[in-house]
Amino acid sequence: MLNLLRFAPDGRASYDEYSRRAGVFLERYAGELLYAGDGGTPLVAEQGQAWDTVLLVRHLPDRAAFSRGG
Predict the structure, then answer these.
(1) Residues 6 or more apart whose Cβ sits within 8 Å of residue 30
(2) How far apart are the first and last CA of the chain?
(3) Sign of the C-alpha dihedral, residues 33, 37, 43, 48?
(4) Cα separation of 33 and 23, whole Å?
(5) Is 66's pLDDT higher than 60?
(6) Could you tell me the pLDDT band of residue 70, with boundaries at 50, 70 and 90?
(7) Within 13 Å, how many C-alpha atoms sit on residue 65's CB side?
(8) Can you give the pLDDT at residue 8?
(9) Euclidean distance between CA atoms 19 and 22, whole angstroms
(10) Strand order of the sheet with strand 53-58?
(11) What letter does residue 22 receive in the DSSP assignment?
(12) pLDDT in tens, 6-57
C-alpha cells in the first residue's frame, strides 16, 4: 500500500502517535513497513502533488487477510 501524506498544520505530531499505534497492528498481522521518508520537491508532478511523507507498506499474508483484520 502506498501512502502519500499531506499534514494539516501541526498534524505531524498526531500522525506520529497514529504511526506508533499502527506499528503494533502491522506486527500483529504480519505487515511490513518497506519505506518511510519525507516528501521532497517533486521533479515530475502535477500542481498540488507535493507530499509531506511517503510510506510503502506490505500487508501479509495477502489482501484478504488485511481486509478481514488478520
Answers:
(1) 59, 60, 61, 65
(2) 16
(3) positive
(4) 8
(5) yes
(6) low
(7) 12
(8) 92
(9) 5
(10) 2-5, 53-58, 32-38
(11) H
(12) 999 888 999 889 888 888 888 887 788 899 998 877 777 788 778 889 999 8
